[in-house]
Amino acid sequence: EAEAAFDEALAIAPRYANANWAKLTLLLDIRRDLPRAQAHLAKIPPDPIANEANVTTVYYLAVYLKDPARALNVLSRSNDFLVGIGPKATLTALAHRMAGNEDAARSDLKAALLLVEERLTPQPNDTRLLANKAEILALQGDRTAAEPLVRDVRQRIGAGDKSVGNQQLAYLFMLVNQPEAALTALELNFGPATRGYVSKINLRYDPDW
User: Fold this and answer.
1) DSSP per-residue letters across 54-84
2) Element at 87 (helix H, strand E)
3) How do the pLDDT tens digits run along the chain, 209 residues long?
4) Tell me, what's the pLDDT at 46?
5) What is the reported pLDDT for 121?
6) Any bridge partners for residue 112, and if so which?
7) Cα(185)–Cα(166) distance, integer angstroms
8) Could you tell me which of 198, 128, 119, 194 has the C-alpha nearest to residue 157?
9) Are the beta carbons of 116 and 135 closer than 8 angstroms?
10) DSSP 8-class letter at 125
11) How far apart are CA 203 and CA 209, in angstroms?
12) Which residues 6+ apart lie within 8 Å of 151 measured at CB?
């Protein structure tokens, strides 16, 4: 019914940005239909992509399609720090790594870490920034430095901090090679009392998983 409503709106106004991006989210996150999501993206006028949320949607679609060039291209239009995600350089590093350009990936991870540490100086207890730092350190191969941060993030979530979700925690545990802890976090995230099903496409298509 939702898709039919979007289609009805788009039949009247094909450039209706909200309906276009809502349909893309439906196809990508709910239906998990990559071919149709890709086809719909090609129909969306380019102007609304400047919206930060739309930029990250296209980035993850490109990652799922194993298209690092597209991922890097769309990120070139975004801010250096993405709300709810973290440094853009972390995402570009992952795209460079997917493309086999390890030197560029290392350079971007270094830049991402510097940005996170700058932001942590005035707010050292920001859980999302601590999670960002743990992720970057793990991606740099410094598991020893990342593990205590991951444990700290888990304790904060357990104490009621909702700035980082259990799916992100599971990803951090995977980065530090703790699959059992990651599985526990995923079970909490996708339990019957949650709405985490929306992001299950990450588990199927994101190469980090």
Assistant:
1) HHHHHHHHHHHTT-HHHHHHHHTTS-SEETT
2) strand 86-87
3) 667 777 676 677 676 677 766 777 777 777 677 888 778 777 776 655 557 777 888 888 889 889 999 899 989 888 899 988 999 999 999 999 999 999 999 999 999 999 999 999 999 999 999 999 999 999 999 999 999 999 999 999 999 999 999 989 999 999 999 999 999 998 888 765 554 444 555 555 555 55
4) 60
5) 97
6) none
7) 5
8) 128
9) no
10) T
11) 6
12) none
User: How high is the pLDDT of residue 49?
Assistant: 56
Distance (Å, whole) CA 55 – CA 26: 16
Give φ, ψ of 26 to 5 degrees: -60, -50
Rounded Cα distance, 21 and 28, in Å: 10
Helix (H) or strand (E) holding 96: helix 88-98
Residue 82 neighbours by CB under 8 Å, 6+ apart: 52, 55, 56, 88, 91
**Measured distance CA(167)–CA(12) in Å, rounded:** 38
Helix (H, G, I), strand (E, B) or coil at 6: helix
Task: Decide: 73 and 91 in contact? Cβ < 8 Å.
Answer: no
Extract the tokens encoding 193: 């009392």
Residue with tokens 């460079």: 96
Structure tokens at 119: 């932001």
Instruction: Provide the residue count of the chain.
Output: 209
27 vs 36, 37, 38, 68, 197, CA distance in Å? 7, 5, 9, 21, 14
And the tokens for 129? 């920034």
